[in-house]
Fold this protein.
Amino acid sequence: MYQKPYVIAEAGCNHMGRMETARDLIQTAAIFCKADAIKFQKRCVKELLTKEQYQAPHPNPVNSYGETYGAHREFLEFDADQHAQLKAWCGEVGITYASSVWDLTSAKEIAALRPEFIKIPSACNNHIEMLQWLCDNYEGEIQLSFGMTTHKEEEQIVRLFEKNGRAKDLVLFSCTSGYPVPFEDVALLEITRMNETYGHRVKSIGFSGHHLGISVDIAAYTLGAHIIERHYTLDRTWKGTDHAASLEPDGVRRLVRNLHAVYDALVFKSSEILPIEQVQRDKLKYKKAAV
């Protein structure tokens, strides 16, 4: 029996540092796209970056919102009060609010808002101090991506959650870290491997896609990833690294529609001859002609 699909629209920093754009993203994801959740990101930039990283230029200056990479990241950040407002706006339109956290300070700030789930991005899934703090202090679901992660590192992460009695609150995401990811690198069969290795040990297996289009997500769902996360923007031509690897609203809307259609179709026949078939059987099925 397949679980009902759950779609997360990953807005990330595609709001470009503007609360009004973030509100548009929320309302569109909820009302037009009919996504289940929208997820943002939270960083304490000076905690996350070294001094050298902070002062370095953006690796792709055309997408930068500041003179340095640190200034660029600061420009895109919302503070804790702004995230509380995002959560309130989500409540108004009936969509679940969530955020990825990239450092311990951000984890504490987002946990204080008591969202249904918190996401650990692939880049930070080896931040053991942060994972331990969440195990000890946050009671909600913890989602975690396995992009750019070795099998040995995966096992260490799962064992940490098992040791703390939190593995059944853990959702693991199959993910390839790239923007965008070519189809041959999506590696959908990792979902099968993860289900076989961890499916009985954790709450669920999901899929976080950075590819183009929506056909791959349908396959991911049928392979056992009922939680589908996709980057989401209002305009793929906007300034920023993630927009080009994101779905626009109509893409998210069609993804939600198609996943629910597949969910309805993934059943056995309720009888050998369905009522819809009986009409055609009576009309079309071969019968020996009367002599």
Q: What stands out?
A: Strands lie at 6-12, 37-42, 96-101, 117-120, 141-145, 170-175, 204-209, 227-231. The longest helix spans residues 249-265. The chain has a mean pLDDT of 95. Residues 106 and 232 are 22 Å apart (CA to CA).
